[in-house]
């Protein structure tokens, strides 16, 4: 029996470094799990922030598309109005020329009539 208790003592002494390393490994594992858990909590916050930012970006992109469409409509309306202005100005010039011509013709007619009366 003395041999057996000596072997058990010797076995325990031999296993002590293994138990110590196993214990240290468990401690490191616990610390890593705790660090990972805290990072996951931080990551959840980051993921929530990213999700909110993506949602805002989609809203802004939608608004941008609507504003571009508005701009295109306004540009088309502006083009149409410029077209109308060009034609209105042309019509006014033509009317002015016609009025000037008619005025000259009227002046000539009046002069002719005056000349007839004077004679």
Describe the structure in your own words.
Helix content is 98%, strand content 0%. By secondary structure, it is an all-alpha fold. The model has no long low-confidence stretch (mean pLDDT 85).
Beta-strand fraction estimate: under 5%
End-to-end gap:
170 Å
Biggest sheet descriptor: none
Contiguous runs where pLDDT drops below 50 for at least 5 residues = none
User: Average pLDDT value?
Assistant: 85
H/I helix tally = 1
Principal-axes shape call: rod-shaped
What structural category do the secondary elements indicate? mainly alpha
Calculate Rg over CA atoms.
50 Å
Number of strands: 0
Keywords: Coiled coil
A few lines on this structure:
This protein is mainly alpha-helical and 119 residues long.
Topology:
Blueprint: H1 2-118
Keywords: Coiled coil
Coiled coil: 43-70
Biased composition (Polar residues): 106-119
């Amino acid at each position: 029996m003395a041999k057996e208790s000596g072997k058990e003592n010797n076995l325990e002494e031999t296993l002590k470094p293994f138990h110590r390393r196993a214990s240290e490994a468990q401690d490191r594992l616990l610390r890593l799990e705790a660090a990972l858990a805290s990072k996951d909590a931080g990551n959840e916050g980051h993921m929530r922030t990213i999700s909110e930012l993506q949602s805002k970006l989609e809203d802004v992109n939608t608004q941008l598309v609507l504003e571009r469409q508005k701009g295109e409509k306004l540009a088309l309306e502006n083009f149409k109005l410029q077209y109308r202005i060009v034609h209105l100005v042309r019509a006014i010039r033509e009317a002015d020329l016609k009025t000037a011509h008619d005025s000259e013709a009227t002046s000539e007619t009046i002069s002719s009539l005056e000349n007839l009366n004077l004679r």
